[in-house]
Design goal:
The complex is a heterodimer of chains A (about 110) and B (about 110).
Chain A lengths: L4 E3 L2 E4 L5 E6 L6 E8 L3 E9 L2 E5 L6 E5 L5 E5 L8 E8 L8 E2 L3 E5 L1
Parallel strand pairs in A: 2-11
Antiparallel strand pairs in A: 1-3, 3-8, 4-5, 4-9, 5-6, 7-8, 9-10, 9-11
Chain B lengths: L3 E4 L2 E5 L4 E7 L7 E6 L6 E6 L5 E4 L2 E6 L4 E6 L8 E8 L6 E3 L3 E6 L1
Parallel strand pairs in B: 2-11
Antiparallel strand pairs in B: 1-3, 3-8, 4-5, 4-9, 6-7, 7-8, 9-10, 9-11
Classes of the chains: A mainly beta (about 110), B mainly beta (about 110).
Chain lengths: ~110, ~110
């Protein structure tokens, strides 16, 4: 069974640009979550989607947005990039259980110059 | 109240020794406490998890100890091996929220 696939794996942007990251969950997993990982901060919850609906959102500015498609694939978008947005963005999929195991992808590493 | 505090930030243990990582939380609504292991260049992977109705859970060399009254839980790695060298994250979830609050991570290095 294929794991969670995230694209692109690495990208470099400049301040003010926007970026879109993509996540393909494990087949059969309908819940997709996004986390931002930075050194010293651990993993910070961005949002969670199930059946194209956002069920929860973390404490990030409105520049961070996401969506989920009918095939459970998800995208997240960051607009007007800031230097502090440089991070590893992790996507995780899980079965539709409130405490279902999170299966993480290898992440998309974003560098903002 | 949503934080999970994890310590130590880094840990060096001799092969065969015991590694202990501690976490503390404030939100009494949390009802699921997993530990994730992350190797460089990889995403975190579930290692072991516990619910607050038990005080201890053991899987092989890995044990979670849970103290509900103190709102603390810890990961014990017995007979630590160089292959255990990784970053470990504790987490907590309120099952009604569909989100996990992660600790800041512990970088473990096991010396051969």
């Amino acid at each position: 069974k294929a794991g969670v696939t995230q694209t692109p794996r690495y990208l470099i942007k400049t301040r003010g640009q926007q970026v879109t990251l993509s996540c393909s969950p494990i087949s059969g997993h309908r819940s997709v979550s996004w986390y931002q990982q930075t050194p010293g901060q651990g993993l910070q919850f961005l949002f969670e989607y199930f059946s194209e609906t956002q069920r929860n959102k973390g404490n990030f500015p409105g520049r961070f947005s996401g969506r989920q498609f009918s095939n459970s694939r998800s995208e997240m978008n960051v607009s007007t990039l800031e230097l502090g947005d440089s991070a590893l963005y992790l996507c995780a999929s899980s079965l539709p259980s409130p405490t279902g195991e999170l299966f993480f992808g290898e992440g998309s590493r974003l560098t903002v110059l | 109240q949503q934080q999970v505090k994890q310590s130590p930030q880094s840990l060096i243990v001799q092969k065969g020794g015991i590694s202990i990582i501690n976490c503390a939380y404030e939100n009494t609504a949390f009802d699921y406490f997993p530990w994730y292991q992350q190797f460089p260049g990889k995403g975190p992977a579930l290692l072991i998890a516990i619910r607050p109705d038990v005080s201890e859970k053991k899987e092989g060399r890995f044990t979670i100890s849970f103290n509900k009254s103190a709102k603390q839980f810890s990961l014990h790695i017995m007979d630590s091996q160089p292959g255990d060298s990784a970053t470990y994250f504790c987490a907590a979830s309120d099952s009604g929220t569909y989100k996990y609050i992660f600790g800041t991570g512990t970088r473990l290095k096991v010396l051969a």
